Amino acid sequence: MSRSFEGVEALRDVSLELRRGEVVGLIGPNGAGKSTLVNILSGFDRPTRGQVLLEGRDVTRWPAHRRGRHGLARTFQHSHAFRALSVRENVEVAALGVGVSPREAARRADELLELLGLADEADLPAAALAHGDERRLGVARALATDPRFVLLDEPAAGLPEAEVPELAAAVRSVRDDHGAGVLLIDHNMALIMEVCDRIHVLDQGETLAEGAPEEIRGNLDVAAAYLGESAVREEEE
Ligand code: ADP
Ligand code: MG
Questions:
Q1: Which of 173, 189, 208, 226 could pair with 201 in a Cys bridge, judged by C-beta atoms 3.0 to 4.6 Å apart?
Q2: What's the pTM?
Q3: Rounded to an integer, what distance in angstroms lies between the CA atom of residue 201 and that of residue 61?
Q4: Which ligand is closest to the CA of 3, given by its number?
């Protein structure tokens, strides 16, 4: 797919496949087009050229909520929680939105708040959450729809380093226990390298590299885009 914004090509001929039961990392510097790609995949934006297939079906023109009911969920870079609702209610509402019973929504909320380490905050208004808890609530809300595919836009951004392993465990659980496909955008390379089965690198709207974590780690182009020339020279020495 490609996407132009008034002449600026945010994405150029990018092709990405996400299968169930795998975690694909989507990395690249700020402005590379990562969020634009997630917006197009999830139905919050349309490609200028190209198409989006969901389990073989052309969903390019489908609105986001319809993709949601067909198993595609996402988180946002900025919190979209209902601030006046409790943490638990936020998760329940997300589940109710895809048509499950109130009883099932409550069950999912219990399970997900436990999984994401939010059980103690369940009855607080979402507005009262610390930044890291807010990030994890976003993930819990996405998972409450029991997605077959979930797109996580920088879930670890601003998360204290000590809380990253818990997030990594949650991502693995979504893949291993629920069999979902996860697209994980993040700048935390330790997290990306640790949990991803494959990595897709974008730079200035184009695919720079794709491969297993160890291949990507060794790719000097990636290092250049990420760390700047000096870091690449150090690696070469
Ligand atoms: P990333 O998430 O990798 O940081 P984005 O997808 O947010 O990158 O942005 C990619 C490029 O597209 C940037 O140059 C950004 O300014 C541009 N862009 C994104 N959304 C819009 C928009 N709605 N209107 C105009 N330009 C946009
Ligand atoms: Mg972004």
A1: 208
A2: 0.89
A3: 26
A4: 1
